[in-house]
Amino acid sequence: MEKRITTPLTEEKVKDLKAGDSVLLSGVIYTGRDAAHKRLAELLEKGEELPIDVKDAVIYYVGPTPAKEGMAIGSAGPTTSYRMDAYTPALLDHGLRGMIGKGLRNAEVIESMKKNKAVYFGAIGGAAALIGKCVKKAEIVTYEDLGAEAIRRLEVEDLPIVVVIDSEGNNLYKVGREAYLSSKK
């Protein structure tokens, strides 16, 4: 069963999401990869204000390709998430509620997600062109000098994602593997 969710991604919405749920996400999300995350973390360390409001926000780990004519953005496949792990707990502590990427997260990130009632979504790496079609508007909001890694504000409609780690720490990579192995017995 697919769940339809619109941002902002409040704690109330997050608590109903469970590892393995298919989600169609609509609303405003931000992009950001490791270079942008490093800058955001440095601002937080200095006690300075962030250039985007991360409260109840979703950050998509992506460096999209340039837009083709008639499109808001080019291909927009997910980046490997562990590259943001060093910076993620500080952002979660400041209200970040959701992240979209691919791959595993470390134990510190998962504990911070549980503490801050956040969720980690997976996007399909091989579906970058399809994902790009879900983006209806894209604009760079900060760090333009980073090129594809600049932070963009995206308006998305029915972005297909899966809950990989829910706010209770249930991890699809773990429970999915266990379910598969137990079915082989």
Automatic annotation (TrEMBL):
InterPro entries in the record: Fe-S_hydro-lyase_TtdB-typ_cat, Fe-S_hydroAse_TtdB_cat_sf
Domain Fe-S hydro-lyase tartrate dehydratase beta-type catalytic: 6-174
Pfam assignment, any one: Fumerase_C
Keywords assigned: Lyase
One term of GO molecular function: hydro-lyase activity
Domain of life where this protein originates: Bacteria
Family designation: Belongs to the class-I fumarase family.
Protein name from the UniProt record: Fumarate hydratase
